[in-house]
Amino acid sequence: MKKTQLAVLAKMKNTPSLQKSKLGRVVTIACISVGLGLSLCANAYHEDSSTQQAGDETPMSTVPTLTTLTNYQQNAPFMYSSGLPDASHFSLLKEKGVTHVIDLIPGDRASEILTTSELGLDYFNVPVDWEGPTLANFLNYAAFMQNVDVNKDKVLTHCKLNWRGAAFTYLYRINVLGENEQTAKKDLMAIWHPNPTWYAFMNEVITHYNGVNGKQVAMSFEAAASESQ
Question: Tell me, what's the pLDDT at 64?
Fold first, then answer.
């Protein structure tokens, strides 16, 4: 009986139908293997491409401009004012032709002195107490300004936010340069409206120069409510 069953199985293995079935399984397995191989290759290519694209991306660098300089203004052809510049701002200002820097901030100014020195800028400090600006402060400022050659030099007046600076440039324009007060006021008010302390100081400066120049210059605005800087 067992010999008969073995003989039957042997005949079945040699039958065309069984061989075709076996061939079909082989082809199917081969196709699956090829498909898996192509899929792995495709995935590997996609990852490589993604990595390459990410690697090729260069970070965007921010180019320094004067638009990032706080309350930056040009007050006259040779006069600029602003808040506190950083080293990149000083470089850009030098490119614009600025040759002199007047710093109205009190305290340790060693870092700015070094920066301006490295750029070849003429630095001058008038330490103005925010709570107590004085006529002497402005006269010191004006004395330096009058040594600037307006035909070839340019000067930046700055403080922290250009509140001190805006007041000083306004006063210089109307008292020394003889500009129209209404014109100078536009730049001042674009920065801030002086509080009572600064209004009193500015009035003292104007009164002093009216006596020296024999004029009747006056501010065309009243003091604002108190501010803090």
Answer: 78
